[in-house]
Amino acid sequence: MRLEFISRYPVLRKKKKSHSFNYRIVLDGRDTVQVNHGYKVQKTIKSIQHPKHKYTHSGNYFINLGKGSHSVELLAGANLKFPVLIRVVSKEFESIGNNKEVLAPMIHQNAVHLLTDNKDVKYYECTSDLPLQVEASGEKTLRILSRLEFSDSMGQEASYRIRVREGKKVIGTYYFNTERSSVSQIQGRDNKVPGKWRSCEISVMKGKHTYSVEVADKDKAVLTRFILY
């Protein structure tokens, strides 16, 4: 299941510049995720209950949850004059089916080969300094498969974030928890271990679109694979 946190920040009507706001998500009482957004005011959004306020463009943050029961707690951000307005939407992942296309990034380094169950699967490395761009035509769904690269100094489990943009617009920031895979290995990188795969999905509207995919954590590298269906 995927949770989408859609948030906006209220501002006084005289304020027209970009506004920063934040909040925290606590998963299962132990993992705390700090969410930071900064957006301009969206003129078309109004509230009858609060006519003196305007509201920013929405910030979208995504978290994947594994099977079983989970608890999610939202905590107020720091140094904010007004409360952040948040709506939470849940969605089950759909089956891809047979009508799918594997996409290669427009500009990239050589593909990284992952060996899993005697299969050789191509992934593309992505970091905060080396984002990837992928072109997709809709109306379809773009699924991004990702695996964190574990180094010797990292523990058994770790988290990472992927940010997806179209032009200057942030489509969403996706947060994942993962652990070292015991059945997969990265060909030619004996000092690295891939994490178990995680995925996120983007609705591709009609026409041609170019998406930029980057890792939001500066010290982490993620292997990615793109499937359009």
Task: Please provide a written account of the structure.
This protein is mostly beta strands. The protein has strands at residues 2-8, 10-12, 19-27, 31-39, 41-42, 53-56, 59-64, 72-76, 85-91, 101-103, 112-116, 119-126, 132-150, 157-166, 169-179, 184-186, 193-194, 198-215, 222-228. The relative contact order is 0.22. It is globular, with a radius of gyration of 19 Å. The protein is built from no helices and 19 strands. A hairpin with a 3-residue loop joins strand 3 (19-27) and strand 4 (31-39). The mean pLDDT is 94. The strands form three sheets. Strands 1, 7, 9, 10, 11, 12, 13, 14, 15, 16, 17, 18 and 19 form a 13-stranded mixed beta sheet that branches. It has two domains: 2-91, no CATH class; 101-228, Jelly Rolls. The protein starts with a strand and ends with a strand.
